[in-house]
Amino acid sequence: MMLNGALFLLVCAAARAAASGGDGPLLNGNFEYAPNRSQMNGTRVMAPNAIPYWKVTGFVEYIESGARQGDMVLTVPEGRHAVQLGTESSIRQQLSVTRGKYYSITFSAARTCAQSERLKVSVVPGDDDVADELPIQTVYTSSGWDSYSWAFKAKQGVVSFIIHHGDDHAEDPACGPIIDCVAIRALNPPRATPHNMLINGDFEEGPYITPGSPWGVLVPPMDEDDTSPLPGWMVMSYSKVVKYIDSAHFRVPHGARAVELVAGLEVALVQEVATVPGSSCRLQFSVGDAANGCAASPMRVQVATARGSKSVPYNSKGTGGYTRDALDFTADGNSTRVVFYSSGYHTTSDGSGTLCGPVVDDVSLVCVSRPHARRLLR
């Protein structure tokens, strides 16, 4: 689906900049404030501070939707302008944040001419100031644009957020991904309760989703020590993602947010929960489809813990709906890992090649000691 550029421009311009601590686009996060032409050589940005509110290094181009790069016509999902990061280049912006608080960054990216393009994101100061690499080799939408999320814990009240393109094997130094509509959201993770031992089991807390964006936000794989854009949950994979979706653009089983498993067996959604050995546990959850044309009979979600697993089928017509299911098990350790993954690979029925899959939502876990187990399992 092509986006209405004017609509996105209004959305991004109307939102107040998040560099002062609010949720929404960063200052000039949609790059609609242009550099002075005297600081450019054609499309290349020549001065580090030429793009308002950003600092650039390396081969960075300021591009306009519809411009040509060889045989390729460049497109921009939000507004009219974006930046393209060439070999060993970066963009950075200084953010005012609250020390000790967690934040999620969302930005849109499109791969262009290099198959091995790699994006790294980081904040300085941060955890050892090490950049995390986001996998952008797989394109999940037919438009060629995907939105990615990344999270960090603020070490100071002022930090620099950096997006770096480090593909030093490209034959063309100008070749690299296009970046647009960068936004931030402060994360407020919910706490576990006796009624739900999982954190953020309803997925209501997560990365910023740009209003009007029809494709959701990808949550990339992460190490177990990384800060998650989806509080409480880890995405376990080598290079694949899950998709964070909202009820404004998709059908979700419960509340306003959910997760779509778009990468089949190659990725799992995981949470580690503290449990008491020998306690009786019930894991409840919803499985459905996002009303995005992801039709399959059936789609299957695999649900697993250390002491049990279950394959949950869902006959999807791609028009929305869900089923509720449960998995009962006995905890055998001080922690229990809850795992969800899709056992199949799916694309939308419109023939566009957009990757899709079953939706997981409204997940709860309750464990009780054996004397109370009968009441739990009624």
Automatic annotation (TrEMBL):
Every DUF642 domain range: 25-185, 197-365
InterPro entries: DGR2-like_dom, Galactose-bd-like_sf, Pectin_Meth_Modulator
Signal peptide region: 1-17
Compartments where located: Secreted, Cell wall
UniProt organism field: Triticum aestivum (Wheat)
Keyword Glycoprotein set for record: yes
One Gene Ontology cellular component: plant-type cell wall
A Pfam family per the record: DUF642
Keyword Secreted in record: yes
Gene Ontology MF, one: enzyme regulator activity
Alphabetic keyword roster: Cell wall, Glycoprotein, Secreted, Signal
The organism's place on the tree of life at top rank: Eukaryota
Name listed for the protein in its UniProt record: DUF642 domain-containing protein
